[in-house]
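Usage

Read records sequentially. Each one opens with the input sequence:
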Amino acid sequence: MQFLASLWQKMTAYLAARTGRLWKKVASRFLPVSKKPTLPSGEKAAVASPPSAPVVVRQDQEHACPFYNELKIRFRDIGKLAAIEETMGRDSLTAMPEGGWQSRLEQLSYLRRHSHEALMAPEVARLIEKAKDHRENNADDWDSWDCANL
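and closes with the structure output:
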């Protein structure tokens, strides 16, 4: 990483010497700007901070309905399979040995098949129905977030 930073500095110095202000203008688009933007009135604009992540991760919270908890676990695992599949797919675009694509396609299709089977299992439909029954009979246990997820 340090090598790349050194190379970037040398390259920008070389191009700045050759092209002058033009290179500085082009390079400034890619470099972080530490100054606050100036408004037409001349005053400095406030820079908004990025939104923060939620403090509580709802996925890991226990719910009063055991069927809903089971659904959350199943969908979390399906999401993990999808993330692994995405990573392997991206990796196959960058670092595959000669002829390795056939093996990678088999691995990806295996993951896709298991994700689909987990999602379409009859048990999932049964859990959804049981969780809906629980929601109707125990409305106090359900907030808008959980109702929307169900």
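Summary fields computed downstream for this record:
- The chain has a mean pLDDT of 79.
- Residues 23 and 38 are 22 Å apart (CA to CA).
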